[in-house]
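Thread: quick sanity check before group meeting

JM: Hey all, I'm pulling together slides for Thursday and realized we never actually wrote out the predicted structure for the chain we discussed last week. Dropping the sequence here so it's in one place. If anyone has concerns about the input, flag it before I start.
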Amino acid sequence: MDYSCRDIAKMIDHSLLKPELTEEDIIKGCELAKKYDVATVCCSPAALPLVVKQLEGSDVKPSTVIGFPHGYNKTETKVFEAEQAIKDGVVELDMVLNISKLKSGDYNYVRNEIKAVVDVAHANNAFVKVILENFYLTDEEKEIACKLCEEAGADWVKTSTGFAGGGATIEDLKLMRKTVSEKVQVKAAGGVRTLDKAIEVRQVGCSRFGATATEAILEECYKRKGKE
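JM (edit): ok, ran it. Output follows.
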């Protein structure tokens, strides 16, 4: 599967989610994202107004997180977070599902909560990626979660927050890709730090991945491919 450096760049949600980042760090992160013309900058809800302002006039979209990183906020809180993020100018939402409810077998709760956030997003032309946090799940639970996400209308299923004990694995990505239909995209998060890994997740069907190593990945791409 051939690729261009632009193809790789437009798979990247440049992650600015570390809690210790200063406003100066966030501005620098947005400049880097614009330089490499990535898909989105994914930031905390509190940083979103700053990120929206920094990305104005560029082709890089603002994204943020909902119920992050543990997913155990109440449904009403997640919906409020989504509504506020949309008011602040977000285009994509990365929502953590309720891991405890999933593992407890309360599938209606999980489906209904995802749908509540999806409905708010889609009514405002925004998209939803649902984070499963695979590190805590069995393969059966991952499959069930993927199916619930699709039933609820999610646009992506996503492996991880990057804040649990493990991130994206190729095995998980293959499982997720085969479990959802082509209507649902797959995002890798946690552990995609090299161009070779980016190519590998692309080959197994990912359309997006989260990265803090954006510069290293794309500089390696330019080195191999030449400036386009």
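AS: nice. Residues 105 and 141 are 9 Å apart (CA to CA). The two ends are 18 Å apart (CA to CA).
JM: adding both to the slides.
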